[in-house]
Amino acid sequence: MQCLLKGLSTISASRGLTVKKLYVAMVGLPARGKSTLAKRIREGLEAEGLRVGIFNNGELRRTRLGRDSTAPEFYHPDNAEGRARREELAQENVAHARAFLAGGGNVAILDATNASRARRAMLEARLTDHPLLFVECRNDDPVLLEASLERKAALPEFAGKTRAEAIASFRQRMDYYERMYAPLEDECCWVRVDSVQNRILEERLGARVPFFHRIRDILVSDWVRNLYLVRHGETTYNVEGRIGGDPELTAHGKEQADALARHFSRVEVTHIFTSTRRRSSMTAAPLKAARPDCRIMALPEFDEIDAGLCEGMRYEDIQSEMPEQYAARMRDKYNYVYPQGEGYVTLRERVERGLKRALFIAGDAPGVLLIGHQAINRMILSHFLYRRTEDVPHIYIPQNQFYHIVATQRKKLFELVPFM
C-alpha cells in the first residue's frame, strides 16, 4: 500500500497544474556505468523542460574528506568509523535531494553504489514524500572493468600513487564493495539494466512511477554524442587489390593520416579507438602525436574481416584459383564466409561487442574517433542505419572522408564529411 500511495504523490503547482516528483537511486558496484547513466537521464529529462539534480556521494566524499577516504580500508565492511562516515555522507545527500525537490525540482538522482539492502532501506525510509525508483547497473565484462580501473586510477584522489598502486587500491575497494553487495530484490520499484548493451534485464514496478516511460526509453537508447567513423589510410594492399593481411600505409596513406590529424586538431575528441592492425594504428599516429591528451586504445573486435585461406589474395586470383568460392561470394556477399575465415554474417557479433565496449569506455565523452576498416565500418554503420543485409557489403566507405554520427534518445545525425 505504501508503494501505491507514494506512486500517487504529487504537488499542486502555482497555476493549479499537477507537478510530479521523483527520486531515482542508482545501484551497482563501482565502475559499472552508474554516473554516466545518471547524466544521460538528467540530459534526457532536462530536454523536456524538467529540473533534474544529481547528488553524487563520491563527489561529496572527495569534497568533505579528500584523500583521507582514498585508502581501500576506508571501505572495509568491518571498519566502523569508515562505515559511519559513509553513512553521514549518504544522509547529507538525501537531505540535499529532498531540498531540491521541495525547492521546485522534478527529479533528484542519488548517484552512489547503494550496494547494501540496509542502505536502500534507509533511502526508502527517508524518501517517503515522493516515489522512489532504483536503477541497478550490471556489467560483468572483464575488458571493460579493466578499462574502468584504468580510468579510475587517473582520478585526482590517486595523484600521490603510481598507476599500479592506484589500480591495486581501487581493485581492493571494489572487493570490499562486492562483499556487501546485494542485488535489488525486495525493494518496491526498480529496474535492472545491462549498462553496456543498453538493455533492461528485469523490472519491478509496484506503483505508477512519474516519468518512467521517458526514463526507460533513455535506458535502452544508444547515447553517442559524436562518433567519427574513419577508414584507415591507403595501404600497399589497396594499391595491389589484395584483401586482408597487415600491410603498412603508402606515402599517400600517410598523407591521408596527416590530413586527418590536421582536421581533428580543431575537433573535441577525447578517445581514439583503433584495430590491432598496423594500417589502423599508423593512421592514428599523427593524431596521437598532435593530441597527447587523447586516450588511445586498440580493440581486436575492430580488426578487418578475416579472409581465411584468401588472405593476401587478389579477387582475380580467387576467381581463377577458387572459382566456386568466388561465385558463392558474388551470389550472396553478406552470408558468404571465407574458407577458414569470416563473413559479414559472422562479423556482426564481434563488431557489436567492440562498439559497445568502445562507447562504454568513452562514457560521456564529447567526441570519439574510431579508425576501422571497410567491412568493420560497414557493420558499425548498419548498427545505426537501417540497411537490408544484401546492401550492407556495398556501403560506401571512402578513405578521404569520415562518417559523423550522433545518436541519443532525442537526436539522430548522420553525415559524410571530407577531410582532404
TrEMBL record:
All residue ranges annotated as the 6-phosphofructo-2-kinase domain in the record: 17-187
Domain of life according to the entry: Bacteria
PROSITE patterns: PG_MUTASE
InterPro entries: 6Pfruct_kin, 6Phosfructo_kin, His_Pase_superF_clade-1, His_PPase_superfam, P-loop_NTPase, PG/BPGM_mutase_AS
Record key words, sorted: ATP-binding, Nucleotide-binding
Matching Gene3D superfamilies: P-loop containing nucleotide triphosphate hydrolases (3.40.50.300), Phosphoglycerate mutase-like (3.40.50.1240)
Annotated SUPFAM superfamilies: P-loop containing nucleoside triphosphate hydrolases, Phosphoglycerate mutase-like
Presence of keyword ATP-binding: yes
CDD domains with a match to the protein in the record: HP_PGM_like (cd07067)
Record GO biological process: fructose 2,6-bisphosphate metabolic process; fructose metabolic process
GO molecular function annotation: 6-phosphofructo-2-kinase activity; ATP binding; fructose-2,6-bisphosphate 2-phosphatase activity
Gene Ontology terms: cellular component: cytosol
Record keyword ATP-binding present: yes
Name of the protein in its database record: 6-phosphofructo-2-kinase/fructose-2, 6-biphosphatase
